[in-house]
Each structure stands twice: as C-alpha cells, then as structure tokens.
Write a structure and sequence with these properties.
4 copies of one chain form a homotetramer.
Chain A lengths: L2 E7 L2 H16 L3 E8 L10 H7 L6 E3 L8 H22 L3 E5 L5 H9 L5 E4 L7 H13 L2 E4 L2 H9 L7 E3 L25 E2 L8 E5 L10 H13 L5 E5 L7 H14 L6 E4 L4 H10 L2 E4 L6 H6 L3 E4 L12 E4 L3 H13 L14 H11 L4
Parallel strand pairs in A: 1-2, 1-4, 2-3, 4-5, 5-6, 6-7, 9-10, 9-12, 10-11, 12-13, 13-14
Antiparallel strand pairs in A: 8-11
C-alpha cells in the first residue's frame, strides 16, 4: 500500500525548499502525496505561493487559513494557535502515515504539535542549524517534536543527535532547495519578472543586485532603520540594477515595508530599481545564480548562494551562527559596513561552488530513506 | 523596581511542583508575582486546583479557559491552540519580565510559544529529563523555546547543555516539589481526605497503597487494560487500604476512568478502597510519605518518592528512561509483574532518602538566581 | 445532480430532533447527506451521541472537537469560537449546497456564522419559538443568519416573518422530533436502560417519573438549588420509580451535577432511582410515552409531551414563553410548588394528543420543500 | 458607583460612528469608559484606526488581535472565531456593566456572543436597518443577542420591535456619526490629507469627488469589475479631482484593490487622483461636507450625506433596501448608469439637509438613557 505523506507548505520559502521533494513524492508509485498549504502561502500580500504551487501542477488538498494580519509579535503566536486548531482536525481526518515540515518559521511549530500530539510521525527537514531570530528556537522545538530528521550539513546532524535524538533517525540528505540549482535551466527567462511587481523594467543581461531583507523578530524596533541602510548602500552602486523582494510575514515586517515605501515615495533616484512580491522557485534559482551580489538576510543568501558560488553580503543577526561558505561576507546593518562589503564582493571574481548544504540530490536521498522507514 | 514574574499553573501537578516557588516570589520584596492559571487546573472534573491555589492564599490574576473536553488525541493539540490564542493577548497586556512554566504537559508548550514569540524571557523548570509519553517531546520543545533552565538533576543539566543551551543559563536547583517534603508537618491530618471523593472511610494509621495511573498518550488503546491490571493486582493485598486518584486530562484518560468505573460498579470487593479526584499539595506530600507502596506511573512516584525513600512500583512506559532511585521497581502492566513487584516492596523495609532530584531547597536557589538575572 | 445537504449535530438533543430528517436525506436519491457532528455530541461525559448516530447506521463525515470543559459561562463563547474556526474550513472544503442546523443551543450559532459568512445557504429548524435561557437569543440570531426556515408552530411562523424574513422562505413543517413519536414501536424495550447508567434496576411495567433538568444560563448560581428541590419533591412520591438524566453542557451544569451527586452520596433513600447519561432517540421516545409524569425543563417535556399527551411539570424559567399544551403545568423550582403540580398530574388521567408542534410528518414536508428550492 | 461601559471599536468605520459617544462617556462622572479595540482597527493595511483613537486622547484598554489576512470568505468566519475566544476572556476579566457595539460588520457578532453568553448586557447601535451584504444578517443577529437598542430611524425602531424586542428597550437616538457633522469646524484643514496616501497633491478649494467602494460579500467575484466601472466613470469628469479610499477588510476586498492597482499601474491619466487608506473622523466629516459628489457604496454616502445634503451616487447592492434621502441616486455598477447619475448630481444644486438618520444629538440621548438603565 502507498504511504500517505502529508507535506505542509506554509510560506513562499517553504515551497522552494521542498519543491523537488514534492515532485519525487508525486511521481513515485510508492507514495501518495497529500499537499497542505496555509498561512502566508495563501495570502496575496505575501505573494500567494499557492498560485505557484498550482501552476507547477500540484493539487493543494487542504488549505489552512490562519495568518493573522498584524506586524506585532503576539500575532505570530496567535497565527500558530489558529493553525494548530484547524490542522489538528485536518490531520485527524487524513490520517497520513507521516507529516513533512520544513525548517523553522514560527508557524511551523503548529504543524509539529498538531501531528505529534496525535502520534502521527513527523519528518523534519533542516533541523540542527543555527541562526538568529525566533527561528532558532522554533527549529529546535520542531526537532524535539519530530521523529525523523533530514538535515543539510554534517554539523547539523551532530547537533540533532546531541539533542537526544537517536542516530538512526537522523539523515544528512543536504538541503532539497539545492536540487533546483543543480543544472542550469536554459528555458527559464527572467524577463517574466518585468511583468510582475512595480518599478523600472530591468535588463537581465546587465548586472544586478538581489536584495531580500526580513525582520529580526527579536529586534523589531530596528527593522525600518536596517532596511533603510541597505537601500542607501545599494543605491550608491549606480552601475548595478536592483531587485528588491518585499519581506515575509514575520513580526516587524511593517517596519521593513515602511522603509521601502518611504524610499519609493520620497526618493528621486529610483532608476534601475524593481520591487517584487514573490518569485516562483525556478525563476528565483536563476535570479540567485546570475546576481552580481546578494544583499540582505534571506537564508538563501547563505544556503543556495554557497552552492552557486554567488557573492553574498549577509546583514545583521538574523542568520547569526549559521555555517557559511567563503562566498559570504557578514556585514552590520550600517551604510558604512554594507558599502565596504558590497564593494569587496563586486571586485572579487566568482567563487567556487561548495557542497556545505548538500550536493543537489537531497530529495532522492530523502525519498529513498522514506521507503525504508516503517511508520507503523 | 520589582521584577514581574508570571507563573503559569495549568494542572494539579503544576501547582505542587511550584508551590514553594510561588510562596518565595509572593513574599519577596524583589518580585511581583503574577499568577496565571488555566486548562485542567480550572476544571472541576480534574479536581480544580484553582480552589487549592486560592485556599493557599494566592490570588489568580488571569484565568485561561481552554481545556477541550475529549479523550481523543487531537484534543490535546486543540487545547494547546486555544491556550496560545488567549495567552498571547494576556501576556502582551501584562508584559511580565519573565514567564515561569513547569515541566512537560502538552498544554505547557502553548505557554512557551505565547511568551517566546513575543520575546518575553521563558524560565523552564525540570527540563533535560527523560520519560515516555508525549511529555518527552514537549519537555524538550519547551527547553528549545526557553531562555533560562532550572533543572532537577545533574544528568538533566548535561542534557540541556547538549541541546545547545549556553551553560550559564542552566542551573541545577533540584525539583521545587521536594521543598514541600523536607520537613514533616505535624499539623497535617490525612483524615480530611475522608471528606472528599467517594468510597470507604480510611484509617490513615493503618497501611495503605497510593495508586495513580495516567494514560500513555502514545498507546491510548491500552489505557483501560493497564488500569484494570493495576486494580486487580492491588486488590490481592487485602491487608492494605487503597487510595486511588483519578487520571489527569491526557488523551486516553477515558480508558483509565472506564476501568475504574467498571471496577466500582461490578466488583463486590470494594472494601478499603477510596477514590479521590485531587489532593492539595501538602496533603499529597503526607500521603506519599506514609504510603506502604506507591503504584502507578505518576512522576511523583519517582521524584518525590526517591527523596522520601518510599517503596514505589512504577508501571509501564510513561516514565521510561527517567532516572530512578533504589526505592523504585519498574513493572510491566500485567497482574503477574505487578503482584511480584508489590510483594517485594512491602517485604522490603524502608529505603534511605536520596537527593537524586534535589535537596529540598530548590525554590530558594531559583529565586536567588532570578535576582541576579537581568531580563533586559 | 444530487444536492449535498450538510446536517450538523452538535448535541444529544440535536440528534433526536433531526433523526427522521437524516433518514429521509440518506434514503433519497435526490440528496447526498453530509453528516457533521461535534461539540457535546462527541463527548463521553454528555453521553456521546456520536455512538448512537453510528449505531443507527449513519456515517459521520466530519467531527468538530470543540467543547470547552468548563461550567463557567465564558466557556460557551469559547466553544462557539473554536467551532467557528474549524467549521469554516470544513464547510469551505465540502462546499455543501446548504447546511441544516437545529434550534437554539449556544454552539449552533457557530454553524450559522461559518456557513452564512461563506454564502452557503443555511436551513434553520425550529425558529420563531420563545423560551428563556441564552437559547432565546441564539434561536433568533440563527433565524437572522439563516436563509430557509422550517418552523414547528403557526405562531413561530408569524414571528419569523415579523423578523423580516420573506414569507416564501418560511415553512411550517412541524417539529421532526415528533416523527419518532407517531407510531408506537413494539420492538423497543426499555429494559436496555438497566444496562447503562447507575442506580437501581427498574421495572418498566411499573410507573415512573422522568426527570431532566438543565441549567438556566441566565441564573447559574441557582442551578444546584433548583435541582435539589426537584429531587426532594420527586422523592416524596414513593410509589413511582424515578429516572434522572444528567444535564447538558450549558454553563451552570456543574451546579446541577453537584446536586445529583450530593443526593447520591448523602441520601439514604435512593430506592427506585436510576441515573442515565444519555438515551438513544427511539428509547427516549418510548420513555416519554410511558412516563407517569415528566419533571424538569427539557424542551421535550413541552414539545414531544404535547403530541403524546403525557403529564408534564415544567420547572422554572428555561422554557418561559414557549407555547404549551394542556398537558403541561408550569411550576416554580420550590418543593412546595413542585409537589402540588406533580400530585395534580398523577391524579389527572391521560391527556389527549395535540398537534401544537406538528403532526409527525415534518421530515417528509421538509425534504419535499428542499427538493423545490434552487440553492443556486 | 460609576457604570463601567465597554465600547468595542473593531474598524475605522466603527470609530467615526461612536466617537461622539466615547467623548460623552469619557467626560461623564457617571461612567467609566473601557475602550476595546481590535480586528482591522489595529491593522496598518486598513489604516490603523487605533492610531487615530489614541491621537484623539483615548486610551485603548484592551487590544484584540484577530484579523485573518485573507480576502476569502471563510476568513470572515475565522476572524470572528478568533475574536470570540479572546474577547470572552477579556470581558470575563473586566466584568463591565454593559458592552456597546456598533452596527453590522461581520466581526461584531463575536462581540455580542462573547458578552451575551456571559450575561453581560449588550447595547447595540444602529439596529433595525436594511442593507445588502452579509451586514444585513449580522445586524439582525446582533439585535437578537442584544439587550438595549439605540436605533437611527423611526422605521428601524419599528423593525427592532417587530423582531420581538420589548418596546421599552428600543430607543430612537439617531446615528451618533451625525453628531460630528452638526457644526462646521473651522479649524479643520483638509490639506493634511496631502500628507498621507499617494497620488497627486489636491487643491481642496477646487471641486472633488469622494469615492469609497467596499466589496459585496455575497457577490465577491464581481468586486474588481464594479470598481473598474466606477473608476472609469469618475475619470470621465476631468473638471473634478478624485479622492479614492481603499476598501475595508470584507471578503472580496482584494478584487477592489486589484482594480485600483491596475488603474494606477496601467493608466496614463492619473491626474487629479489621490488614494487614501484611512481618514480621521473629523477630517472625514469635512471631506464629505465639501464633496461635489460621493460615489460608491459606503453607508456614510447615505447616512451622513443625507444630513449634509451632499449629492451622492450609491452603487450596486451593498446598501440595498436602506432608507435614503432625496440627495441619493442609486446606480448600477456600469459605466453607463454611473456616468448618468454623476452628471445629474453635479448639475443639480445643493440638497437640503434632512434628519432621516438623526439630528446630531445622538450621543447625548444615548448617555441620558444609559444613566436611567439599571444593568442589574
């Protein structure tokens, strides 16, 4: 009988992180994929990943409407509560053999609660890493509640085992996000990005910076200031076009959005800037690959970038402690520190790809392992 | 300025575990105690601990009504969700300097979420231990979300540190429940227990067994059977009176209750049995101290019992992996295994007290440490 | 194409009220029945109607676990909130052509919200009546949110129309609960009731009182006292056996339960008393039919009793304002008033059946109407 | 002792509707005002009314974070559920003598549930009116749950009484929103509006249209189209500046926003347009007063406009059935119908003020009545 694996996609980042795995599950005769989406993945404001998911040919079996519309920190807890209430009933009804959840966003803890409290095995991807933000705590709490662990680095594996998890339930598969980066896809044109978002039309044959900055939930009051510094710094480099992605749904995002809006409304020099809400995973992979420099605190600027060998300037404490490749320069959220770091990166010629976060075969490794597990 | 410490008491077990700390906080000029109660602690069916709390002279500042009335496992998740939603708002309003939560019951994860997602420091008592049940996962998830850790054993301290927590935030205070056991209180008479519950009037100068069995949330279907075996085994020892405490609100409790009800309705030999819903902490301490044998899977039959040196038969997997003293015999939930173990214990003369879970000064140690912490 | 009609059964009373309709829908080739159960209907403590429903051959398609375990009034609101959150998602997924809900219990408002806010047509049974309790408000709020109205009396029809509802959406079908009473079912033996509950074994060939008292949510503090008065009064009539049904989940039920428990634990004269948690609809119909006198405030003591012509003593304000037949005597919740009323009723010979609440063909009328409605 | 009156403000519209009452309560020695805000009133996206409230000198005592971020209809139900859960606890804690709620938005039903289920008297403003949208049902459900009713028109009073409410609990006070319109406030300059929102700087001494269109929750799929028709129609009148207010949080709002965004991004002729998120009550009153024509389906285009005698074109079915003054022309949401109606209105010279919705003394009348009520 097919194993029914429920995968929960709750944000635009989630989808990129497990897209290759979703395809493997969908295409395998050994598994039935149950796809659950919810939270910010359903929300227009955060670039409705659900639309991307369906365009990619997946059917979303269950939708969990739970994202609280607020930039205040208590909203993160309330969102998790509302998700838990709904997901508990949905999982009870579906009775999957196991539930897959990805990484460390605040909503994901509701998934591991709803499943583990009902003795449904939890499969956690990307445990054992270190970062700043509430993410760091959430990631470890997910590890504590999960039963099987597919991690992305050797150090992560050791950390998960140190947390008391049995060795034979921890597998270093690498990060499935890298599966998308493995081969250059010729048929992907970035020109489509000129059709969404607002701002100047860009020429993707010319150099550009990719900017993506999320709030630091543990230091919300500085969100706006940090984003302003990034914009100012990037704007000094007039030879480069700039693509800026709006922040995710973390508490404090209104500060970031405010900085962007102020810049757009007040600044005269918006030449070469384009502002995007969300980007489908394959286009995002290309955008990363071809960027002259990545600037911000998206975890992809560490994980995917190291595999691609793309110069990256990682800002502030959101990714504090994460393992980084030589392509990453850490910078403080000040114009001075940022400008120096960006200058260094654009002078420096290409970095070599490294396999710190995997070799691009994660989903295959995961699915092979899932075949062997007896979920009982 | 006084530090405002919010302590959350969500079950009858919680109250005993932190009663001595509540007194310390209330009586100290350095702290303001904000007492939050909720979940099964407010519920008549589970022996309303709120009444005990108020009788003890505490004011409950906030009540969180969230316990779902169901013995099904999804109800545990839904209860946690409802608690998270309410507690998030309550903590936002109170803005305490820190929130204290105890141990590992499924509801407690809502406390650590509601606080940590708002960057309110979380103080966790009794992390780092090992047990069966969903408790084991919840305890570690609480550790992951908490900021300060007061553990009860040396091994627990090592485990918490291994989980990635900074050494200087982990303190081995011992378990505050033992503070209540430190000195024999002459003024406590167990005769009051004849005024609550149902069953025979007991003579507390004569020997008795204390029986307390909770469901194993990971093996709900056997709850009834295991309880029946315990009752049958205990009933063979006609020289001993039996005090049985109804189970807590964990999923599967209806199986346990059913076994008790069937016994009460069908069995002719109910001589010497008394059935109690809940017992105030001090009376419970005395009841443990004077018991001839403890039978069941209450964690107090390991923790408190080791300090007291009282013979204890711990049944099944709920406490699997927990550190035990020499006074504990582990038994399978079968009449055969249980009868043997009970027989051994009543033959054996008194065990020596051991300090495995602390020396009875936990609250003093905790409060001294809290004085030093700058919650920022 | 079949019309998909979702019927929501949230309490033991609900099931009796719509059982005949459920059968009609299930057996009709024009309809697909989607059966949703939840709240106290799923809860052992309130006599799990879900078990009765399944024994009757129905499949419960969706279960909504939402009943808060508390006798405090705020719990009624929280239960409704938890139900709304879950039911919104479930109805979105099912997309029924219409949702049927019954009467006036506090949980039912969550059904009409979850459906009407999504533009799913709401079919309300038993609107337009008058009673006390929070029920009176809830019933009218349900009418306000509903689209089609099947009422039980002529006066009710007028009242619904007066509330601004278009005449052609209000149908006087009578109450479907009476459908079960229409013909005496020979194959139903009440002896099975000796196998559930606790108390004396009864002889159903001998006369008995049926007692069912629920709290008055608007006067919770007197719940216990009123129940005591009823028990005392009934106990004076030693020639009659007494069947008492535990109260429903309304706020204040713990007062009623307390009165019953005190009576059971303290009173010596328990001869001839039997205490039941819940009774399947057909057995309940027989129990009503053969009773010497009904005592309490169950609405069935007015509705069903008038059809059956059974003597009934309706106590207090819970049913205040409801249309009554000549078989009903209203009494105050005092021993004096109650004893007089009971005495009158047992002297009085049988009342004639009256059709105040319908002629026993309600479900047929409802389903015929549903066939004609274009839910669009 | 002062009567503690809790007023719940859940949207920007709510605040304007009860601002004058809030001042009366705050300034009276007979009352203690407890101000509760929540839902879209707290949300930046909908123009955070909370900021206006605090700027006006009020303290918000409790904040209820509950708005689900979604334009789908089920989100309206889930928002109501989350609000109910939180508000139940907050009202239990506050124990106000009564709770005031305004009108008919979908969230407001959670207020009447949370209060009435706890027997806290509910005071409802603006019952008995007729409109389209889910509002019509919600308004009547609020009436059903409320205890005291302050209505705005004679017809409304009759309708509330017809719904079964006792005459002596229904008072025709008129609408408190009109209190703000009573006297022309010289010190209010509309120029501040050029400092918020985006678009052209306007000259408020020159003529302008005020446009405010909300979704029709019962016909969500046409939201975008209807808004487009309005924009196109208004844009034909190049002699008039246009002020457009973004839609409220009703399901379907994303369609409206999309139409506006498309217009802004694609249209060349944006001359004279300004787009605003929210406007404080006094500025809004002035903006209404001085407008050449109001276009859309805001209820203020009927209520306030009739008092002011401002020409108004009310579009579509959202306000269907509401009593209107002679200053209102109803139009279909098509360019043709709209253009005709607008042309008529700008030709027509000023209308006379009429008192259909009150005489501008509502708050005084309400507070005088509240003094007399014994909330018991």
């Amino acid at each position: 009988m097919k194993k029914n694996i429920a995968v929960v996609v709750y944000s635009r980042a989630n989808f990129g992180r497990c897209k290759s795995l979703l395809h493997e599950l969908k295409n395998s005769k050994d598994f039935k994929l149950t796809l659950i989406s919810g939270a910010s993945a359903l929300t227009d404001r955060f670039g409705s990943s659900a639309a991307f998911i369906e365009k990619e040919g997946f059917k979303i079996d269950e939708k969990i409407t739970c994202l609280i519309d607020s930039s205040e920190p208590e909203a993160q807890a309330i969102t998790a509560g509302v998700s838990t209430i709904q997901l508990a009933g949905v999982l009870k009804k579906i009775k999957p053999d196991a539930v897959v959840l990805v990484a460390d966003r605040y909503e994901t803890l509701s998934i591991s609660i709803a499943a583990s409290y009902q003795n449904i095995p939890v499969i956690h991807l990307q445990g054992g890493e270190i970062s700043g933000n509430i993410d760091d705590k959430v990631r470890n709490a997910n590890t504590a509640l999960a039963d099987y662990h597919f991690v992305a680095t050797k150090q992560s594996k050791d950390r998960v085992i140190n947390m008391g998890i049995s060795k034979n339930k921890v597998f270093n598969s690498g990060c499935p996000a890298l599966d998308l980066l493995k081969s250059f896809k010729k048929d992907i044109s970035l020109d489509v990005l000129n059709q969404s978002g607002v701002g100047d039309e860009l020429d993707f044959n010319k150099p550009y910076f990719l900017i993506s900055q999320h709030p630091l939930t543990t230091d919300i009051s500085n969100s706006e200031k940090h984003m302003s510094e990034i914009i100012k710094s990037a704007n000094k480099f007039s030879d480069y076009q700039k693509i800026l992605i709006w922040p995710n749904s973390d508490a404090g995002n209104s500060g970031i959005s405010k900085a962007i809006r102020k810049f757009r409304e007040q600044d005269l020099n918006l030449d070469g800037w384009r502002f995007l809400l969300a980007i489908p995973p394959d286009e995002y992979a290309e955008l990363l690959r071809q960027a002259s420099c990545l600037i911000g605190n998206s975890s992809s600027f560490i994980r995917e970038s190291s595999f691609l060998g793309v110069p990256s300037v990682v800002v502030g404490d959101r990714q504090k402690g994460r393992e980084i490749g030589s392509n990453v320069i850490l910078a403080k959220p000040s114009t001075n520190s940022l400008s120096k770091a960006i200058k260094k990166q654009i002078i420096r010629s290409g970095y070599k790809s490294n396999k710190l976060y995997g070799d691009g075969n994660a989903s295959k490794k995961i699915i092979n392992q899932l075949r062997k597990i007896n979920f009982g």
